[in-house]
Structures are given as C-alpha cells and as structure tokens.
Write a structure and sequence with these properties.
Helices cover about 0% and strands about 55% of the residues. It is an all-beta fold. β30 and β31 form a beta hairpin. The N terminus is likely disordered. The protein has a four-stranded antiparallel sheet with strand order 1-32-31-30, with no helix packed on it. The chain has a four-stranded antiparallel sheet with strand order 2-3-4-5, with no helix packed on it.
Length: about 375
C-alpha cells in the first residue's frame, strides 16, 4: 500500500478500484488505468515508480535512481512541484520504534539530502513539509519542536505551550518560502469542562525564528486553508459553529457562524462546503449574491485540471467527480465520472491527477 501525506501541498496516495463504466452517460474527463506490480506518477519529465520493495526514478526510459528499500512509501511535493520528498516507513511491528528514511530530490531528481527519522511506537509520527526553496520542515509533535533542515544548515525551534503526547490532538502543517504555519488542536468534541478543547495557531518566521502564537476557541477543527493572503480555520466551539479568517500576521479579519469540511479559493472567492451545501464567499469571507447549492453529499477533496475546478464526492464506497461551474452567478455541479473504492482517498495534484496503490495507477488528464 502506498500512502502519501502532505500539508497544504501535502499529497497522500492510495489506489482505488476504478470502474470504466458510466451509468449516467459519456465520461467527460479522460483517464488511464494502469495495472502492474507497482504504481507511478510523472513530474517534471521524470517517471517515479514505487512499490513495497523500493522505488525507481526514470528519465527517457533510463533508470537514474534505483532504491531497494522495503516498506510503505510516502511522497510529498513542494507547492511548485520542483522538490519531492520520498519517504519509506519500515515494517517493524516487533520493535519499539518506527523508522522513516526520508530523501529530498530537486526538480531534476538529483538527491539534495537524506536522513533517518525514528519515533517510538504509540507516539505521534513527525510531520514533514517542503517549500519552494527546498527547505524541509519537520514538526516533532511529541516534543512540540520545529526543525528547519536547509541544505547546509539545521535549526531547532522550540514552541510554547507543551502538551502531553497522551492528549488527543489534531495537527496541521503548512509552509511558504518565508514562514511556517502550524495549527495544534487539543480535541474535545464534547467540550468537557475538565479539559476543554482549544486550538493554537503558530506562525514561525524562517529568517529570524520569531514565533507568533494565538489561542482560539475551537475544540474541534474540521478544515483549514492557507493562500497568499489569509489563513482560514473552521470547526466547532462547543455546540457552536465557527470559521475564522486571519491575515498572515494572525490578526482576525472576520468570523462567521458556519462550519466547513472543505474550503478553498477561486480567484476572489472562497468556496466552502459541508455535508449539506456549497456556498461562495468573497475574499473577506462575506456573503455574495451566489445562491447556496443545497444537497446532501460528502465532498472530500477538490483538484484543478486544465484550469477547471473539480470536486470529488465519496458515498457508500463510490466516488463521483463533478465539474464545479460558477458561471451566470450560480453554483452548478456537472457530473464527470465515477468509480468504486472501499476507502476514502486523497488526490495527488500534479500536472495530471493521480490515484495510486501498490499495483495500480489511475490518472486523469
């Protein structure tokens, strides 16, 4: 099984069973279904093939990297897709700790750096991200520590507000070329008075390591989104629904009494989704003239392909892909295709859209 984790640009890859049957009519998206003893994706003219025994990097039908390393593979890319982290989680159920070998490649898939990460079982695994400069950011959840790994420099940044690793929590990591953004949620769905849930936002400057932290009243985080201007965090505050819009200095810009499972922006609009509606807000998270699209569904992700926005819905082991159409001031979902899957999946968003598992690759183009 190939799993891929990423924070904002973090991509998690899982294979699915794809039905080449469209009961609603002609399929509008083109796709290819490849079955073999491996999965693959293509990036910047290179083909990366992975399975549980190792991985290969191929250019013009010539193998340029061949790693024989057994375990579960994880792939993360920078926002511009010019840097790739390939990780390998060793299978060692009988040991006290988990071993993760992490290798960073540049645009031409030359190795930039590699290192080994170990975490004791029953503890949180570390989170990783890479920015467009090739800086690796590691968040050690268990010690509330950020490590910035540049090519010839390593810096550790200890964060305020340490919590026991036994506390149930959510963690979200995102980066750009100047700052690290971290969301740490102490989860409490019932908002217990003994240990009330809350959320802390961190912004860490990668030049002077200045830390800005902000505590907000969300005991569960359901979604977040970071763009060039704003950070959006949505969730529950006890029995209330809340969504906050912050600028890059973590100053509150707006808050509304709504909760979203997914939020992203198209041009000057925020597109927000929960299980019963799709709504369009302006760049300050204020209402627009778009009429809400109401329907019971479970949209789990979105992707952009050839300049168009698509939504993936998962219900009853079945995925449906819709084109999101905002023309004429209306929110419309235009059916594209569908396929079966026994589990939810996250979409790998490169030039093409890839769905991966150890012996199958499906990509949309």
């Amino acid at each position: 099984m190939v799993n891929v984790v990423n924070i904002n640009k973090i991509n998690i890859y899982v294979i699915i069973i794809f039905l080449n049957v469209n009961i609603y009519g002609q399929t509008l998206l083109k796709y290819n279904d490849d079955k073999s003893d491996k999965c693959f994706f293509e990036n910047n003219g290179y083909r990366i093939e992975l399975n549980e025994l190792g991985y290969k990097i191929i250019k013009d039908n010539e193998i340029v990297v061949n790693k024989n390393i057994s375990g579960v593979k994880s792939v993360k890319t920078s926002q511009d897709n010019n840097f790739t982290i390939l990780s390998n989680f060793e299978k060692n159920e009988n040991k006290l700790f988990r071993i993760n070998t992490i290798t960073l490649y540049d645009k031409n898939y030359d190795q930039v750096q590699t290192f080994v990460d170990t975490v004791y079982n029953d503890y949180y695994a570390n989170l990783y991200a890479v920015n467009n400069s090739g800086d690796i950011i590691c968040y050690d959840i268990n010690n509330n520590l950020i490590t910035l790994k540049r090519r010839y420099e390593l810096n550790n940044i200890e964060l305020p507000f340490y919590f026991s690793v036994k506390t149930e929590a959510q963690h979200f990591l995102n980066v750009d070329n100047q700052n690290i953004y971290l969301i740490k949620n102490i989860t409490n769905p019932l908002d217990d008075e003994i240990l009330p849930g809350f959320t802390i936002l961190y912004k860490i400057n990668m030049s002077d390591f200045q830390i800005i932290s902000l505590k907000i009243s969300l005991n569960v985080v359901t979604s977040y989104y970071l763009n060039s201007d704003y950070l959006v965090v949505s969730g529950n505050n006890g029995s209330e629904y809340k969504t906050y819009l912050f600028d890059k200095k973590l100053k509150l810009v707006n808050e509304i009494d709504e909760r979203f499972n997914l939020i992203f922006n198209i041009n000057e609009y925020f597109i927000s989704l929960n299980n019963s509606q799709i709504a369009v807000y302006d760049s300050l998270l204020k209402a627009t003239n778009f009429k809400k699209h109401t329907k019971t569904f479970n949209i789990v992700d979105y992707f952009v392909l050839n300049g168009k926005y698509y939504l993936a819905e998962y219900l009853l082991n079945n995925y449906k892909i819709y084109l999101l159409d905002l023309t004429d001031g209306e929110i419309k979902l235009v059916y594209q295709t569908e396929f079966e899957s026994d589990f939810p999946l996250v979409i790998l968003k490169l030039k093409n859209i890839y769905l991966l598992d150890k012996n199958r690759t499906i990509f949309l183009e």
